[in-house]
Amino acid sequence: MEKKVYFAALFSLFSVMICTAQTSSGTTAGWVKYEHNPVLGGGDLGTVFDISVLKDGDVYKMYNSWRPKRSIGLSVSKDGFKWTAPEIVLYPTESTGWESNLNRIAIVLKDGVYHLWYTGQQRDSSWIGYATSADGVNFKRMSDKPVLSPELAWEKVAVMCPHVEWDKKDKIFKMWYSGGEQYEPNAIGYATSKDGLKWKKYGGNPIFSADPKSEWEQHKVTACQVIKREKDYLMFYIGFKTEDLAQIGMAKSPDGITGWVRFDKNPIIFPSPGEWDASACYKPFAVQEKDRWLLWYNGRNGNLEQIGLVIHEGKELGF
Asked: Under a CB-based contact definition with an 8 Å cutoff, are residues 152 and 163 in contact?
């Protein structure tokens, strides 16, 4: 009897240890946080957040939101782990009346031209603007007006966090964007464009909203990245349990618009207690390599946000 009690207690302790290890790791489903995180931000740079990464030849280019400068920065890396300090590629401007603060971008390289969509903020509202560049560094605005504005009831006062893909088959730009409140938007919408300048919003917006039955994302869903796969579209997105507690999950859809199915092991990335991302995990951006996935995100501890990396070995995500 004593042996049974001893082994039962030992098994219970072992189970607690496993659970604690899984919780403290801050990931599930094969994702592992890089041991030398964060990879960018902090120190003299301050907050660097909400990024878009482009694999340009054998170089990674990370377009980032550099909060102290209110500007869009560019950092470069040969391996995705070590990054240069940001170089400003687009400054804010007061003259247009809607973009005194720039952040939350999307980058697409098409036919030798770098296309940049960015969030402009002013007067407690947000809009999306558009600029292009021949070298990925010197950008020129394509309009002094936003290309996307909050006009619909669900968009409230803000549209932001664009993610754009060029569809070669349909020959259109496809944008997934967030809309709603200014501090954190509420849901995700969809729009299309032939030239990157004039956009048509999908009539069934928003296409992806918070799930009140799922505790980890019951409050809001925002800031997604969508990747077209052979048979479906894969979405990485932020789920908010509360206004301040953000985590990262996955979903998939047959067409990138309707029929979204959540990954049953969500969230895949969440805060690690006592670490640099102890408060929240935001804005995922993933790149698939030959034998692994690299996913960057911004983690917050208190008021400081920095960029970190998680790795998934193997191409298959089990989803």
From this structure: no
